[in-house]
């Protein structure tokens, strides 16, 4: 996906961000991309998703355009009718070194 590659190039040049900040932004970009891809794969419009999950179409648009930082409960509401969920997974060893001091 071109968006991911663009972000990879940009984040290499953002020295003011911590690795943790970069990881969080990277996660948000991937999550939004997954939501958008799942919605399009199912052929569901934002308005139809609104009807299915109860999150207003305008809010869905802001999420998909990365203009808001949605609450976890909102993400779950959106993911459910798309047949998706979130999972907690181990941090890969290559990323773990940056966050060890924070736990």
From TrEMBL:
CDD domains: HTH_XRE
GO molecular function: DNA binding
SMART domains documented for this protein: HTH_XRE
Membrane-spanning parts: none
Domain HTH cro/C1-type: 35-89
InterPro entries per the UniProt record, alphabetical: Cro/C1-type_HTH, Lambda_DNA-bd_dom_sf
Pfam families: HTH_3
Top-level taxon of origin: Bacteria
Protein name: Transcriptional regulator, XRE family
């Amino acid at each position: 996906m071109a968006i991911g590659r663009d972000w990879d190039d940009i984040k290499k040049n953002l020295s003011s961000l911590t690795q943790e900040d970069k990881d969080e932004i990277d996660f948000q970009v991937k999550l939004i991309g997954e939501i958008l891809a799942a919605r399009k794969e199912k052929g569901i419009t934002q308005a139809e998703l609104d009807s299915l999950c109860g999150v207003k179409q305008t809010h869905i648009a802001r999420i998909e355009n990365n203009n808001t930082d949605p609450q976890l409960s909102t993400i779950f509401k959106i993911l459910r009718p798309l047949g998706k969920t979130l999972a907690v997974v181990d941090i890969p060893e290559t990323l773990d070194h940056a966050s060890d001091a924070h736990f």
